[in-house]
Specification:
The chain is of the alpha/beta class. It is globular, with a radius of gyration of 21 Å. It starts with 6 loop residues before the first strand and ends with a helix.
Length: 312
């Protein structure tokens, strides 16, 4: 009789913010999670104390403390090494497991007939809409440029790397890449691939792992029934640093997977625009955040003025 594969959830946290405990408690409550490994790069003392208490109270909760921020990919590799499960589910620290999700991941794994694979879940906003990244097209310099200038928002086609607005399939489908916010694979496959490429500090390492798997003959699957609530934007990290890491990740990815002389030249030429596009996004968000209160006050003043005229 074949034993049930054990599922280990691996989470990496660096000053995640108030949503961290929501994520931790959702994992610990999930009946189909056999083990939970949380890699604490650095969180406030009161948060670390709470995590230590939870770990002491729960036999399936392992807390690994690194003492410094070593990056997402390296943190995942450390967590995977500490885990003992046959299946590894990498989960963001601001993502919440819907009660049925772990069971769905296990069922999806049972349906795979051999071969090497990665299965990604459906990442949702708090309003139930699907986030970007859960199912992606092929990341190429052309596709990235299309995304940066917003072309993929107004048209569809092979250039698009964002598929979240496509009709939701009823069953699993093969895709080029899924999100590291909720990504599952067998332990032996993860080890065969050498884990996440630690040259990425934050962002793009999940796309890299999916492509590495595919180039070695494996398949990447999107599971529409494995729902993950992902708050996002809860980290205390500066958005400027986050977007800089993301831009750096894109450049490293293109340099790695497009090694031809002409391709390398293209990567060098687009590196500057990639960083500028990422920084422009942060600047635009800052401007919107500063204008929002001002526009709100103007709207309230206009409403009050209309009410006064109505009263007269």
């Amino acid at each position: 009789m074949v034993s049930e594969p054990r599922l280990s959830v691996v989470t990496v946290s660096w000053r995640t913010g108030r949503r961290l405990m929501d994520s931790v408690k959702s994992v610990l409550k999930a009946p189909n999670v056999d083990e939970f490994v949380l890699v604490n790069h650095d969180n406030p003392p009161e948060v670390v104390a709470e995590l230590r208490d939870l770990s002491a109270e729960n036999a399936k909760f392992t807390l690994v403390e690194t003492g410094e921020n070593l990056g997402f990919g390296k943190g995942c590799n450390i967590g995977a090494e500490a885990a003992t499960g046959d299946l590894l589910l990498f989960l963001n620290p601001d993502a919440v497991l819907v009660p049925s999700t772990a069971a769905q991941f296990k069922e999806s794994a049972r349906r795979m007939n051999g071969g090497d694979w990665i299965i990604g879940g459906r990442i949702l906003n708090s309003d139930g809409t699907e986030q970007r990244g859960a199912r992606r097209g092929e990341l190429t310099p052309v596709a990235a440029a299309s995304s940066f200038i917003g072309l993929d928002r107004i048209s569809v086609g092979p250039h698009s790397i964002h598929w979240e607005k496509d009709p939701l399939p009823e069953d699993m489908i093969i895709v080029p890449a899924v999100s590291g916010a909720a990504m599952m694979m067998r332990r032996d496959v993860f080890e065969k691939l050498g884990g996440f490429d630690e040259r990425y500090f934050l962002h793009v390492e999940d796309i890299d792992l999916c492509r590495t798997l595919r180039e070695k003959g494996g398949e990447v699957w999107f599971e529409p029934r494995a729902n993950i609530l992902h708050y996002g934007g809860t980290s205390e990290s500066s958005p400027w640093k986050v977007e800089t890491h993301k831009a750096s990740g894109f450049v490293k990815y293109f340099w790695k997977f497009y090694p031809g002389p002409l391709q390398r030249l293209v990567t060098l030429l687009v590196s500057g625009p990639i960083f500028l596009a990422m920084w422009a996004r942060v600047l635009l968000n800052d401007v919107r955040n500063h204008l929002r209160p001002l526009l709100g006050r103007k709207k309230r003043s206009a409403d009050e003025e209309r009410q006064e005229h109505t009263a007269e």
